[in-house]
Amino acid sequence: MHLPPIIASCLTIAFIVFLFRRDIREKPDVSGALWLPLLWLVMTCSRGFTAWLNIFGLHVSGAASLEEGSPLDACFYFALIAVGFCVLLQRQVRLSEILQNNGWLISIVWSDFPFVAFKRWFKVLGHPIMVLIILTEPDPEKALSRVMKRCAYIVVPVSILFIKYYPELGRGFDT
Q1: Cα(112)–Cα(30) distance, integer angstroms
Q2: CA distance 35 to 24
Q3: How far apart are CA 167 and CA 170, in angstroms?
Q4: Phi-psi region of 3 (alpha: psi -120 to 50; beta: other; left: phi over 0)
Q5: Which domain holds residue 156?
């Protein structure tokens, strides 16, 4: 059965909404802060923020070079990191102790592009922040399960939609 792409898109969105409504009805014992790691994971598993905007017709120019990266992507990830940092502060996680025990920043010293390395290091700093949000939930195991399920609710149907109905989006590889 081959549907027109617009109908397949609508059905995919309806299916994703159905999955999320079913998930929320289960009354999970997790906080709303888990939407941050979910958004981070979906973006990490798929495309950057500007790539999604371009797909939806909001054409945003990217970076001049691969080393520079997209300023809009940087702002998006910075916002997620900042909000995640605030969540961790509210949960009274001792971030100074975590940073003190991990000498990550020194790794930019031997880079050929130290400023670029610093920007990438800063983005990677979001990974442990998002992990800490999950681990500081009342039930970290349930929180991790919920984030992974919700990520699959989005990534798998959209991937199938893109591969089958929008091959120019679903079958390419971009570095």
Answers
A1: 43
A2: 12
A3: 5
A4: beta
A5: 5-170
SS3 166: coil
What would the pLDDT profile of 83-125 be if each residue is shown by its tens digit? 999 999 998 887 666 666 665 555 555 666 666 666 666 677 8
Asked whether residue 28 is domain-assigned, the answer is yes
Q: At which residue do the structure tokens 């990438």 appear?
A: 120
- Given pLDDT bands bounded at 50, 70 and 90, which one contains residue 145? very high
- Quick one: CA torsion of 122, 124, 129, 134, rounded to 10 degrees? 160
Q: How far apart are CA 74 and CA 59, in angstroms?
A: 17
**DSSP labels, 20-77:** HHHHHHT--S--GGGHHHHHHHHHHHS--HHHHHHHTT------SSTTT--HHHHHHH
Please tell me the total count of domains within the chain: 1
Does residue 175 sit within a domain? no
Can you give the pTM of this predicted structure?
Answer: 0.79
Three-state DSSP at 103 gives coil
Q: Nearest 10 degrees: CA dihedral of 68, 72, 74, 80?
A: -170
Residue owning tokens 């017709």: 57
